[in-house]
Amino acid sequence: MPYRSSDKTRQKKDSKRTSMMQAAVQVFAEKGYHAATVRDIVEIADVAVGTFYFYFPDKETLFTHLYDETADFLVQTLQQASVSRSLWPQQVQAIIQAYVNLAIFEPAIIQLLLIGGSGTPALATRRQRFRHQLTQLWQRPLTEALTNEQLPDQDSRLTAEAIVGAVDEVILKLLNLPEPELAADGTVLNLTRFVLRATGPFREKT
Amino acid sequence: MPYRSSDKTRQKKDSKRTSMMQAAVQVFAEKGYHAATVRDIVEIADVAVGTFYFYFPDKETLFTHLYDETADFLVQTLQQASVSRSLWPQQVQAIIQAYVNLAIFEPAIIQLLLIGGSGTPALATRRQRFRHQLTQLWQRPLTEALTNEQLPDQDSRLTAEAIVGAVDEVILKLLNLPEPELAADGTVLNLTRFVLRATGPFREKT
Amino acid sequence: MPYRSSDKTRQKKDSKRTSMMQAAVQVFAEKGYHAATVRDIVEIADVAVGTFYFYFPDKETLFTHLYDETADFLVQTLQQASVSRSLWPQQVQAIIQAYVNLAIFEPAIIQLLLIGGSGTPALATRRQRFRHQLTQLWQRPLTEALTNEQLPDQDSRLTAEAIVGAVDEVILKLLNLPEPELAADGTVLNLTRFVLRATGPFREKT
Amino acid sequence: MPYRSSDKTRQKKDSKRTSMMQAAVQVFAEKGYHAATVRDIVEIADVAVGTFYFYFPDKETLFTHLYDETADFLVQTLQQASVSRSLWPQQVQAIIQAYVNLAIFEPAIIQLLLIGGSGTPALATRRQRFRHQLTQLWQRPLTEALTNEQLPDQDSRLTAEAIVGAVDEVILKLLNLPEPELAADGTVLNLTRFVLRATGPFREKT
DNA sequence: CATGAATGAGGGTTCATTCAT
DNA sequence: AATGAATGAACCCTCATTCAT
Predict the structure, then answer these.
(1) B38-45 vs B15-35: helix axis angle to the nearest 10?
(2) Do chains B and A touch (3 or more CB pairs under 8 A)?
(3) Would the Cβ of B34 be found within 7 angstroms of any atom in strand F?
(4) Could you give phi then psi for residue A169, rounded to 5 degrees?
(5) How far is CA A113 from CA A72, A103, A106, B119, in A?
(6) Is the distance from CB of C148 to CB of C205 less than 8 angstroms?
(7) Neighbouring C-beta atoms of residue A54, cutoff 10 Å
(8) CA separation (Å) from B105 to B45, B73, C175, D66?
(9) Is the pLDDT of residue A12 over 90?
(10) A59-198 adopts what CATH topology?
């Protein structure tokens, strides 16, 4: 075996792949799909153009892959925060807390997901799916609370959509601050209050 | 429509300019800033490429100009709806009603404004300014109601931001429906309820 | 009408188009489809890259178009030479004469058609069609002579194919000479003799 | 097959080299010089890219080497068929028979040699040399027969060239058939007749 | 010997922009 | 004013070639 691939090589390979993906997230988040060039990405990752195409089939595939992966990760993370609580107020607080944490910790992720507009037809579908998942993330516990008559009657889908929009907007504004960490706790608190008001008074059942 | 020359006397003179702007709104809204080409625009407007550069210095300037104009128009329209009422609940309902009307009547306007943070650096600033204006649109009457102690104490800025996000998200979803008009009234009603719940019980003062 | 397009403009436009096509024939003939670059072509034609794409949709389309056009032209020319005579020996002589004339006058045309190999799947089909047309060009008068029993019995298709190959080979060799014109007449004479021998003794009928 | 190492002792050692050469012939014949990629070759040969450059200096060298080797092999084979007979008609039949056999048995060889004048400057020379050898292959016995006055007076070089072209064309057509073997015998027969007619009536001398 | 990750020049194509008419 | 032919920088991607392992 004149060429061992499971040693350092493997690590370097993965590191290169990873650094390109990170660079890609950064550039895509910053400039959007069209304005981001492959050259931008490889320059940041400090590799040659050809290397990009050694690891990824093309720009669009990488982008959609990145989008999907990131979206799934975000949804999973929030989902876990949600199911770890049983009462609506605690669920709201947990989801928002998780979301804000993520935004502070990995702002590029959030920016990537909110690029919107229209990079490519393929993205439009992806984006819709993502928004839908986010909506369902809120709608599920909301519907349960409604079923238990713990919340006043309302259109759960519209409420969920509105919450998704509200949370995104507030978090984006938060990220635009010079030092988002400082305002994070306050934002979580007030945003939670907003959502709880918006879904009406919660009455605990026995 | 903000991009229509309001001076009837030069209607003929500016007809090309106008048709190009209308075409531009349409194309930008549909494909985003980068994917939209000058050729797309002039083809729809049925003029030559050179004509574009007679009326506008370049693509980006037109875009930012269009964005500003459209944003101002939207804000003005909602502003008027807002000031025509004196009580918070009526104001909420009026703004949302006006917003939905506009979205149904001229969806391209809304889509143009929500294209997102990509595009160009110049747009980022513009977008922030627009979001800020929208926020203030809500924050002003909200603050007044708070001052009059008609609403429970809350962070008026965060509430306003959240409302902006909520309304946008719901209206975008509405526009994605095959026949938005049919759902318009219901959306106005439920969205208004959402916002009113989110700002807490309103107590009318004498 | 501020822009008249049927005047000098038209001429210049056509001249540019023409010069690019000539350059393309030259480059394609010289290097073959793949080795020929769009940049090669525009440099010879002394225009910018963009100009190429203003006149032609893409490299492949231009190539196939050029090939078709050239092939048709060649076949037409030879066809006319053929039908202008009624007797087989005169037909043979006329076709060969016309072919050699063309080769001397416009050598790039012949080279373009014989590029062969495989530029692109699309070309393979084209090339076959062209060879088929050439074959039929010979087979038609040959069959007629056979029907009139002016030539000895033979497989007219194979004979025609063989003649096509023979003529091409000899003419290509001729073109490789430093001064093809000098050898042209002799080649026509001897090639005609070859073909006449190859189809057997001709017996004129009354 | 010319590209097969004839030394059994180093069969193992050169197995990669051999399989790459076989793969190369196949790929070059199929796609032509430029469209064939080194990757295509090594994938078929099931070795790594680097291995290619251990055995061959570069793509072009391999190609020209392959071309030369193949051309020599073909010429040798036909030569042997030619010298094994003493009379012109038998020589013609033997050469054509050998050519057709080879074409049926190893079509890639023939296709490789007929790829054409594109490729690379270096190939042009090679190709000319090969055509020249083929021409001489026919011209030698032809001249001899002429010297013996067994054939009518003619330009032996032109006749030889024409025969070369004729034979190639017919054999290429044969290879394009779905099942070339079925038509092989008939083609040999008729092609032989064609050539014999084309060189004029053969008179056996004592 | 053999590997395959890495390179970067170069190819086809697009598109914002200019300018002679 | 208006036109559209012309430009060329820049984009995405391919592929021959190298070299550390």
Answers:
(1) 150
(2) yes
(3) no
(4) -60, -45
(5) 11, 11, 12, 15
(6) yes
(7) 13
(8) 21, 14, 71, 71
(9) no
(10) Tetracycline Repressor; domain 2 (1.10.357)
Q: Does B168 have pLDDT greater than 90?
A: yes
pLDDT digits (tens, 9 = 90+) for C72-107: 999 999 999 999 999 999 999 999 999 999 999 999
Residues found in chain D: 206
Q: Which fold has domain C58-198?
A: Tetracycline Repressor; domain 2 (1.10.357)
- Quote the radius of gyration of chain A (alpha carbons, Å): 20
Closest chain C residue to D118, measured at CA: C32
Cβ pair D30:C194 closer than 8 A: no
Determine whether the distance from the CB of B50 to the nearest atom of strand F is below 7 Å.
Answer: yes
Two tokens at D16? 């990669």
Whole-number Cα distances in Å, B174 to B96, B105, B107, B170, D6: 13, 13, 10, 6, 76
Distance A12 CA to F12 C1' (A): 26
pLDDT digits (tens, 9 = 90+) for A81-139: 999 999 999 999 999 999 999 999 999 999 899 876 567 888 888 999 999 999 999 99
Which nucleotide lies nearest residue A49, CA to C1'? E8
Which chain C residues are closer than 8 Å to D154 by Cβ? 190, 193-194, 197
- Flag whether pLDDT at C29 surpasses 60: yes
pLDDT at C166 over 90: yes
The residue with greater pLDDT, D123 or A145, is: A145
- The candidate with the shortest Cα–Cα distance to A21, out of A56, A71, A49, A48, is A56
Chain D partners of C67 at a C-beta cutoff of 8 Å? none
Nearest to C159 among D30, D168, D194 (CB): D194
Minimum CA–CA partner of B169 in chain A:
A165
What are the structure tokens assigned to A159, written together?
A: 């409420």
What does the block give as tokens for C128? 């076959």
**Which 8-state DSSP code applies to residue B12?**
T
Per DSSP, the three-state class of B13 is coil
> DSSP state, D57?
S
Domain regions of chain B by residue span: 60-198
Quickly list DSSP for A121-184. Answer: HHHHHHHHHHHHHHHHHHHHHHHHHHHTT-S----HHHHHHHHHHHHHHHHHHHHHSSSHHHHH
Interface of D with C (CB under 8 A): 30-35, 114-120, 128, 131, 154-155, 158-159, 161-170, 173, 176, 187, 190-191, 193-195, 197-200
Neighbouring C-beta atoms of residue C75, cutoff 10 Å: 17
| Angle (CA) D85 D87 D88, round 5° | 105
How far is the CA of D125 from the CAs of D31, D61, D116, D131, D147, in angstroms? Answer: 21, 14, 11, 10, 31
Class of domain C8-56 (CATH, top level): mainly alpha
- The shortest C-alpha distance from D34 to chain C (Å) reads 6
Question: What whole-number distance in Å separates Cα of residue B169 and Cα of residue A189?
Answer: 22
Q: Give all chains having 3 or more CB-to-CB distances under 8 Å with chain B.
A: A
C177 touches strand F (CB under 7 A): no
CATH among 1.10.357.10, 3.30.360.10, 3.40.1790.10, 1.10.260.40 for B60-198: 1.10.357.10
Q: How far apart are CA D188 and CA A132, in angstroms?
A: 72
Please name the fold of domain A1-56.
Arc Repressor Mutant, subunit A (1.10.10)
* Nearest by CB: A34 against B32, B170, B198: B32
Read off the pLDDT of residues D139-185 as tens digits, 9 standing for 90 and up.
Answer: 999 999 999 999 999 999 999 999 999 999 999 999 999 999 999 99
Residues of chain D with pLDDT under 70: 1-13, 116-118, 206
Q: Which of D167, D155, D168, D160 is nearest to D139 (CA)?
A: D160
Per-residue flag: C128 CB under 7 A of strand E? no
Nearest residue, CB atoms, B165 vs list A34, A169, A193: A169
